Batch of 4 targets.
Target 1
Amino acid sequence: MAENNNIITTLALKILNHYIFKNFLILFILGFFFIYATLQFLRFYTNHGQAIDVPDVIGMRLSEAGATLISHRMRWQLSDSVHVASAIPGSVVSQNPEPGSKVKSNRNVFLVINAFAPEKVRMPDVVGVSHRQARSSLESRGLYIGRVTYVPYRDEGYVLRQLYMGQEIRGGTELNKGSEIELVLGGGLSSVRTSVPELTGKNLSQANTTITQFVLNLGVIIYDNTVITRTDTVNAVVYRQRPSASSNTMIPLGSSVDVWLTVDNAKVRAEENE
């Protein structure tokens, strides 16, 4: 029995001392530590399990917004510029990811700023086309439909006049991108009515777009006492409207819808619950 144990021990020592086994063992150990070190590096590099809040830089000038993001261990990139009449030229009007989003450090935040000078576009000639065609043509050039007026005319829904700031405007005239165009449409020979859209929770721009899609006009705009700064004005949303939205409420085309806006989410939720 002892002799067998000696033989097994001798063979084991020969295997352990063999250079192939030694090399294999060394490679195994090195491979294990390499994989472990790689996983630890990736964990550190990607800040595994760590997330930070994206700061709100809307309303800040670009230099201030960039410094704020860098101080929060984030990077930033200017993605576009638009013209917003109510915002300060050069200030941030939107960001992606949105404020309060949970992200990892070194995340790129894409910023859109208010242009210092509005881009110029040429007014298309939409007289004689349908309301839908006019909208498509105007929006493709960065223009928007403002007030819509209906007059008695046999061709219902077709553009009879196009106006800018109350004055007739010809096709080809240069305008600031984002300008609103007033349209006068034929109302047909009978009274045409439409339903009232739900505007609660929409900002002023979204509400105006929705209203014009229903061929209505934006009426009185009322901000509550929570709206103080320019940023508040941009972020404010509708919490009340008149007339209210209802499948049973039908009003004449071209009618006005008054809106009340706030930055108090509690008011918006209360209106939605009602």
Target 2
Amino acid sequence: MSRAASPIPIIRVGDPLPEPESALGPDSPYPGLVAAGHDLSAGRLIEAYQQGIFPWYSEGQPILWWSTDPRMVLPVSAFKLHRSFKKTLIKTISQGRLEIKIDQNFDEVVKLCAESKRSGQSGTWIQPEMRVAYRELHQLGRAHSVECWMDGNLVGGLYCVAIGKAVFGESMFSLQSDASKIALTALICFCRQHGIPSIDCQQQTPHLKSMGARPISRQVFLKDLKLFTPQPPPPWEFFPVYWNHILPFTQQLP
């Protein structure tokens, strides 16, 4: 990407990120692109997410910073639990085979997300330096993994960034059918438990839409961030009783 083709700011260490509203518009070949640079420190990531900006780039590119408009978010109250998956989840929980863990093995979750094959993609956007950066965020308590363990084995999960009561979904993986959906459902229950209103999904996809995600304007998204990022963060742990937020039958389980 040349500067002539896309006149965006080049960010150096110590430079502030541009305002998200300065992102390239819908008529640009790169709508939502805010800046490029080489600083992927934990401090830079926190600065970015607080402003509704996120990194996304491929191997060989500079670090590209984006703020899309509209923005795809999943309101936790709108989450759709499809009937067939709900039956599977109820059965799995009832059999006592499932355990949801948070931050038990963050590094492994990110690694498996990076290795996960996705339709239409030849590689991963989770570059080695991104894995290092998000590990630093995790060590600061600003990034978390939600893990699906089945019969004692890690079979699926996701990781996210969390600032106050704002949650930004990053990536998921499955080694077993429906495992990433189970992890996402657990995150929805966690969010309902702690009054977290939505999960940022960044990009629009039919899969996310089928689960209840919807696009909102950047203006509304940034307004919500200003409200929820300053709030005290919840304790990042999961208890089986949290399933009651979406599966009331669990009140009767031991």
Target 3
Amino acid sequence: MTVPAQALDAAVRQDGNWKRLSPRMLLVHPVIELGKALPAIVGAFLAGHGSGNDSSGSRWSLGIAGVVMAFAMLRWVTTRYRITPAQVQLRHGLVRRQTRAAPLDRVRTVDVTAHLLHRTLGLARVSIGIGTSDRKGRQALVLDGLGAERAAALRSELLHRPADAAQPKQPTQPVAPAEVELARLDPAWLRFAPFTLTGAVTGLALLGIGWRIVGEGHVNIGRLGPYRAVADRLEEWPLAVDILAVFVAVAVFVAVASTVGYVLSFTGFRLTRHDGGTLHVTRGLLTSRATSIERRRLRGVELSEPLLLRTAGGARCLAVATGLRVGRGAERGGEILLPPAPKAEAVKVGAAVLGTDAPLTVPLVAHPLAARRRRIARALAGAIVLGAAFDAAVLLAGWDSALLSVPGAFVSVAVALGYDRYCSLGHAFVRGYVVTRFGSVVRRRTAVAADGVIGWNLRSTFFQRRLGLTTLVATTAAGRQKYSVADLADADAVRFADMCVPGLLEPFLT
């Protein structure tokens, strides 16, 4: 949160004990920023050489690197922080000075991360969540550059602070907090890694950067032996065989990249429950990460089953809580409670967190058949458009006319996908939790505490109204902030909402 300047000026006059981050960050910031600017530096260097003026390219690349390093070092010089009896405050900026503060009684989550360079220098990055959903990372207060021991102590101090901590009291002998282990990474779970796509996107991005650098450097890869051999072989094979070969190569690349990403993200994974009222998640090989979640701000859990992972019998378990980074993928998001693992293990962890397995195992109420017609119709519409575009490309490019029959497979896949999407739909209300399930490419079963639901939205498109269907959306301050019960019958939507949170929709029942 941003604090008014007058209030902060008063606070500074009362307590000027501002501290710097560790000076070792002067070795970290320049390296990180140079890595981000590497494409621009390489591009300037290659552009200079491509124009025939080698010294010009070198000067431009060195100039860009110098500017980047100067700004990176200035970041440490202009950053201060302090911890008062009531707030954690962070001040940074030179031209635009900004001071942010997190009230100690609003701290809900503390995320401690340390990538390889941090760990080499004994540093850590502390991200403090103050009870709002951090979908874009704008709400967390980040102290990037504390000593590792100081970061661990600060996490414990912020999350296990008693309610009357602001009041002076007699010093007592500290008691070591007790933890109960709920889950630990099993090496056998590595078999699910190829089905997760973890790291595949990063691998493709790296390939794209490499391709761009090759293009900027005017390197003719057609002259390279391995590339030439593969290209010659593809020219000899029929088109259908070429497509199959490229598909297999991509599948192998994705499987390898996903396995590497899984190992990097989840090595050392451990989930524990703290007697002080928090859940702790630690994981990571090169970049270690420790996330602490205040249990009284936990609003539920989610079982996530991406299509490939579901076919292998696996699932993830995610937390629905305020103050967490969500929607960034399991390897980046802070809501992960269990990495891809057997579904039974994910249900077990979710039940341990909730205190009951009923929301994750109860049979769900099926949705009306009109919802099935709508799901299949929507999938078919997309398949028809895609098939028409594919046939147009075949005709314009003069490819083999046999390829004109491929869109028939699109229709078959669309029908199967629409039916699966309908089978995924379901809802229930059990043990005080609103349970909803939806999705096919990524099937999600979410259990949200009814006392965390702050409102309902009832949405009905033109086509839904023709079928008598309504999408009921539960709004909450936690997690993704909205959880949908899609394609319910109109009357059932209102009744279900009233059953979950009595009285909230009373005007609609009259």
Target 4
Amino acid sequence: MATAALSDTMVLTGRSLRHWVRQPQLALLSTVQPVILVVLFAQVFGGAVHTPGTPYIDFLVPGVLVQTVAWDSTQTAVGIAEDVSTSTVERFRSLPMSPAAALAGRTLADACRNLFVVLLMTAAGTLVGFRPRGGAAGVAGAVLLVVFFGYAFNWFFALIGLTVRGAEAALAASFIWVFPLMFASSALVPTDTMPHWLRPFAAHQPISQAVDAARALMLGRPPGEAVLATLAWAVGALLVAVPLAVRRYYRAD
């Protein structure tokens, strides 16, 4: 049973990856846009944001990595909403395959795409001055942590894609969640520069925890509780979102 479920998941992962590769415009925009963000944010905010003891580019890159995987999770919601509206889900449900394979395949494919984009953005960051003092081990640990965090987000947004009707509604519903988390975070500016009422939320919400963990690993600093907090957020999201999404998958209409 487990072997069959894994095989089904791999087949549907390949389907989603081929769908991405066979759309050159989508593949190009998915890879070029995040690189532009790294360069643009570094140039726009580099002279305005004060990060004591750390060049802004070193502060920025880990934050943009986490922001990008969070933003790309909205595409999971859109893709699944499209599958529902085009009756693709109905066809999958009629096949003799594992109940969670369609969702697992889609979220795993999106995690593979995130891995590619994160590696590309890290390389682009080094071209504009990013210097990860944590060495290869720190960078590898940060990349894996960010991708795993993004994978957990993918399941949460898969649930959104199954709950709302239509791709446009899925995108709008995703923005409601991801925008406050992305910008009220430590990704682009230190949280101690924010208004007093906003700081507690900004410092402890999941994206800030993931940013702080990735930043510590990449810059060779003690990660403290940030890594554990990020893993806790990711595992907690999976424990909640996976069963709810699978259950909703069989009720989608």
